[in-house]
């Protein structure tokens, strides 16, 4: 299994901080945000990672991370995304590297209290279709929201004004190589982007989307409030030495 970390976008909700750097290079407590998804991948046993980034500060990732060896990675590839085409568009850029390998995809601003290894191990046992991670949240309207019936996801709605459940789709996804076929069939949303929710709904249509529930806390870092909360939560965890 290969890992994909998506760290592009303009981070406009965090202006003016993101006027001078990429959002994923901002600090979360005592380390750059991008450290967290990399260390999560390594802890899950994923040693080959592709980092997708963009904007005017993409070179800063290479200066910070190098070849990834000090984090425990075997390989770290860098891919550049032009503009903001959406999560699915960013994911499409890695196919030439991941080939037919199953992939673990992690949004670079998503932090988890607990290891993602149980999800990775589950997908390794059956690397077909897709597996996503859900978490009950207080404000599901900020995220893709899943409707679950009879133990299966029947629909995901992106940022609904009236959510039918509190189950948010987190930024952790596992896909087989069919994901790239689904992405090629997508049409841009009203935001002009290729939506990962549409990819997940395509797997639902083929009855090949599974899910698991996140243990412990989960947060993104896309707003000043959530960035501050992420730092507070991380401060309470046992700290490992920085690589």
Q: What's the CATH first level?
A: Alpha Beta
Report the uncertain regions: none
How many E strands?
13
Write the CATH homologous superfamily. Answer: Spore Coat Polysaccharide Biosynthesis Protein SpsA, Chain A
Helix content: 25-40%
Please outline the major beta sheet.
7 strands, mixed
Note the gap between the termini. 23 Å
Largest sheet: spatial strand order: 5-4-1-6-11-8-12
CATH topology: Spore Coat Polysaccharide Biosynthesis Protein SpsA, Chain A
Please state the CA-atom Rg, rounded to the nearest Å: 17 Å
Instruction: Kindly report the average pLDDT value.
Output: 94
Put simply, the count of helices is: 8
β-strand percent reads: 25-35%
Q: From the coordinates shown, what is the CATH architecture?
A: Alpha-Beta Complex
Integer tally of domains: 1
Structural class category: alpha/beta
Order of helices and strands: EEEHEHEHHEEHEEEEHHEEH
Q: Choose one word for the global shape.
A: globular
What can you see in these coordinates?
- The protein is α/β, with parallel strands linked by helices and 243 residues long.
- It has one domain: Spore Coat Polysaccharide Biosynthesis Protein SpsA, Chain A.
- Helices cover 26% and strands 28% of the residues.
- The protein has 8 helices and 13 strands.
- It has helices spanning 35-43, 59-65, 87-92, 95-98, 117-125, 179-184, 196-205, 224-235, and strands at 2-7, 27-28, 31-32, 48-54, 75-81, 103-107, 110-112, 130-136, 144-149, 152-158, 167-175, 209-213, 218-220.
- The longest helix has 12 residues, at 224-235.
- It is globular, with a radius of gyration of 17 Å.
- It starts with a strand and ends in an 8-residue tail after the last helix.
């Amino acid at each position: 299994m290969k890992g994909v970390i998506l760290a592009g976008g303009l981070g406009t909700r965090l202006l003016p901080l993101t006027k001078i750097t990429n959002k994923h290079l901002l600090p979360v407590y005592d380390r750059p945000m991008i450290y967290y998804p990399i260390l999560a991948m390594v802890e899950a046993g994923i040693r080959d990672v592709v980092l997708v980034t963009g904007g005017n500060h993409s070179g800063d990732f290479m200066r910070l991370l190098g070849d990834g060896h000090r984090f425990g990675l075997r390989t770290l590839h860098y891919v550049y995304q032009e503009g903001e085409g959406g999560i699915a568009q960013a994911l499409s850029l890695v196919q030439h590297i991941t080939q037919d390998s199953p992939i673990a995809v992690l949004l670079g601003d998503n932090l988890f209290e607990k290891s993602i290894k149980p999800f990775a191990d589950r997908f390794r046992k059956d690397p077909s279709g897709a597996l996503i991670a859900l978490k009950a949240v207080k404000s599901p309207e900020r995220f893709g929201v899943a409707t679950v019936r009879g133990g299966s996801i029947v629909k995901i709605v992106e940022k609904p004004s009236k959510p039918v459940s509190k189950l948010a789709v987190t930024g952790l996804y596992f896909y087989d190589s069919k994901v790239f076929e689904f992405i090629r069939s997508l049409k841009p949303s009203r935001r002009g982007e290729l939506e990962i929710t549409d990819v997940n709904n395509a797997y639902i249509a083929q009855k090949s989307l599974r899910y698991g529930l996140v243990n412990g806390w989960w947060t993104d870092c896309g707003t000043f409030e959530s960035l501050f909360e992420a730092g507070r939560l991380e401060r309470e965890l046992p700290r490992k030495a920085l690589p």
